[in-house]
Amino acid sequence: MKDKIAQTFRKLFGSEPILAFAPGRINLIGEHTDYQEGLVFPAAIEQGIWVAIQKNGLSSCRLYSEDYEEEFVFDITSFSPKKGHWANYTMGVISQFQQAGYKFEGFDMAFVGNIPASGLSSSAALSVAIGTALTALFNLTITKKSIVLYAQKAEHLFAGVKCGIMDPYASAFGVKDRALLLDCRTNTHFEVEVDFGDHSLILINSKVKHTLADSAYNKRREACEASVKILQDSFPEATTLRDIQVKDMEKVQQLLPADLFPKAKHVITETERVNLASNALHAGDLTVFGNLLKESHRSLSEDFEVSCVELDFLAEESWKLPGVIGSRMMGGGFGGCTINLVANSEMKNFKATMRAVYKDKFEIEADFIPVALSEGARIL
Ligand code: GAF
User: What are the UniProt keywords, alphabetically (predicted)?
Assistant: First the structure.
């Protein structure tokens, strides 16, 4: 990929590029908690986005997406988002750099990716790769954390998704063979060594992406914010659902209307599950870890309502199989992948059975994606 994008760049723009890479991510547990300042437990994967970049002496930026086989040119001093366009991530990140006071000349950029499914944060990987590349190209003094925050803001303002910090953070800070126990209040993390012994993580790509996922995502966030407003009368210190404990659930139920309570309950219980899961990993207790994955799925499906029939089917069917420690939907939901922890000795049977039952039910050929926890963004 690296050589391919360098070659494309030279051919298109005729200069020698700087190359940057940023990975996609998985998440062990902790879904829809990041924008409520909760805990999440993601890791970077091997697959990601490669960016080739160089100054062009113009006042415009010339972009090329190898995957879309498409060019896009814009003026560096005046640009705005174009609904649904891949160039939004580049423009969004540049606009964040500019707002922070960094000045740019025009540049050329080409990029390519190999992230194999939706729900693995290709957009965050692209934004972080661009931020990393720009920092090197213009020799800027800028921290990784700022790149992460710019990437998140770019997604809010240029793609219209009010995402949390988890995806760009994992892409920027990933470490080989480790997951990041990330506190989305302080935006700091612990690296946790992940060794599942004779078990492996494998994703199943449902190959569905339900429409309106972005607006449903924003609605979930709004529901959490509405709950916090109501709860503040009784919990004056609370600024997010992170501040509410599982032990207060009965009171929370009395205070919240019936449509908001299950959503708040998911976020409150999910942060506790992240804590318990990291303790279980530390203690090497895979059974507890696996049960927490199942509980997380149920909560996302029944309480937070971000699953779909295909993801529910994949999770529930896998729970029945020998050697499956746990499995759940992963990421924002409404499609994408499930994450599964499976005994190596049962992997073949797991894949064959899941492929067959999914095909039989939905007439979709699922993909199976092994994951290796990997390094975060870097200049190559
Ligand atoms: C998406 C968002 F981008 C993340 O911030 C996070 O909220 C996730 O959905 C759900 O945990 O990936």
Answer: ATP-binding, Carbohydrate metabolism, Cytoplasm, Galactose metabolism, Kinase, Magnesium, Metal-binding, Nucleotide-binding, Transferase
Give me the number of domains the chain comprises. 2
Choose the residue to mutate in 35, 167, 215 for probing ligand 1, maximizing ligand atoms within 8 Å of C-beta: 167
Q: Which of 145, 160, 193 is the last residue of a domain?
A: 193
In a domain, 377, yes or no: no
Q: Rounded CA gap, 16 and 3, in Å?
A: 12
DSSP letter string, 131-147: HHHHHHHTT----HHHH
- 10-residue mean pLDDT series, the chain (380 residues): 96 97 98 98 98 96 96 95 93 96 95 94 96 97 96 95 97 98 98 95 94 86 98 97 97 97 98 97 95 98 97 98 98 96 98 98 98 98
Atom of ligand 1 nearest to the CA of 35: 7
Counting from 1 in the atom list of ligand 1, the atom nearest the Cα of 119 is: 12
Active-site residue flag, 167: yes
Q: Is residue 52 part of a domain?
A: yes
Q: Check whether residue 168 and residue 287 sit in a common domain.
A: no
Q: Extract the runs of DSSP E, i.e. beta strands, from 28-184.
A: 39-40, 42-55, 60-65, 70-75, 107-113, 178-183
Complex-level ipTM: 0.99
